[in-house]
Write a structure and sequence with these properties.
This protein is mostly helical and 82 residues long. Helices cover 29% and strands 0% of the residues. It has three helices and no strands. The chain is elongated and about 95 Å long.
């Protein structure tokens, strides 16, 4: 049988020993200490107007791309007197 010091037998009626806490630094502390923690980049929020202008630029000039004929609705009758 191989000896393993981390394994031991303790009877059920006996209270277990309390393990001492390890004084290791947290990951955040370790990252700060090693210089590996990078600051976040500042994000500038986009306003609705800027977003609208960007979409308009992508779509091109929508007024000149096609002619909308709104007179098509004149042919339809809203009366149900048939």
């Amino acid at each position: 049988m191989t000896y393993n010091p981390s394994l031991r037998i303790i009877p059920r009626n006996q209270t277990a020993d309390v393990l001492p806490t390890q004084q290791e630094p947290s990951i955040l502390t370790w990252l700060e200490g090693t210089g590996r923690l990078k600051a976040r980049e500042v994000v500038v929020p986009v306003t609705a107007e800027e977003e609208s202008e960007e979409i308009d630029d992508l779509m091109g000039d929508s007024d000149k791309s096609f002619d909308v004929d709104d007179d098509d609705d004149d042919d339809l009758s809203l009366d149900d007197d048939d």
